[in-house]
Amino acid sequence: MTDQHQRVPIALRTEALEQLLVERGLVDPAVMDSLIKMYETDIGPLNGAKVVAKAWTDPDYRARLLADGTAAVAELGFTGRQGEHIVVVPNSSTMHNLVVCTLCSCYPWPLLGLPPSWYKDPAYRARVVKEPRAVLSEMGLRLPDNVEIQVWDSSSEVRYFVLPERPTGTVDFSEEQLAALVTRDAMVGVARVMA
Questions:
Q1: If you placed Cys at 69, which of 34, 88, 164, 165 could pair as Cys (CB 3.0 to 4.6 Å)?
Q2: Which of helix, strand or coil describes residue 93?
Q3: DSSP strands (E only) in the chain
Q4: What is the DSSP letter of 146?
Q5: What domains, with CATH codes, occur in the chain?
Q6: What share of the chain is helix, strand, coil (3-state, %, to 5)?
Q7: Does residue 106 contact residue 155 with C-beta atoms inside 8 Å?
């Protein structure tokens, strides 16, 4: 990469590229806006957060979610490519689940949107299997030694989704309030949900 590319922020380069594509008639700005909106509001971490909040407030839904994640998330309308077979793994005070795709970047798009760059990074994919506690610590999550860490390897056949622990002090929270607490990182297992 040249020095010039390093000095120009990626946002400016992206904007310039988009402008060129629009000027040449290769991209319709309305279509671009609708795709961006879709990934920000209709497909993304908010969907997964709604699933988590429902599971925290409805024991019957939680049971269905853990028994058949694909069917349970479909009850809430979250289906589609990269979400054909979802397995939900629950965190507890003694078990922490962590998701990776060691081959590429298989990820439950209907629930979490686009995968973050660190999820696709070869270093994360290789290290998290061998030394999950160290990787989590580097990402800001320090778990007590008595908490077991289970690493789940997503694939094209199955995508794993972490059901985080409900934080204390949220007994009176509505589903909407709970969903607002849930982050994408907590549903991958590299963070916890904080009240």
A1: 88
A2: coil
A3: 86-90, 95-100, 148-153, 159-163
A4: T
A5: 3-41 (no CATH), 44-188 (3.90.330.10)
A6: 50, 10, 40
A7: yes
Helical H segments across 38-158, by residue range: 45-57, 59-67, 69-75, 109-112, 117-120, 122-130, 132-138
Round to whole Å and give the CA distance between 44 and 120.
Answer: 17
Q: How far apart are CA 99 and CA 150, in angstroms?
A: 9
- Per-residue model confidence as pLDDT tens digits over 2-57: 455 556 677 788 788 888 888 898 888 888 788 777 766 666 799 999 999 999 99
Q: What is the pTM of this model?
A: 0.80
**What's the one-letter identity of residue 106?**
C
Which of 34, 92, 93, 106 is catalytic? The answer is 106
Task: List the catalytic residue out of 104, 137, 156, 174.
Answer: 104
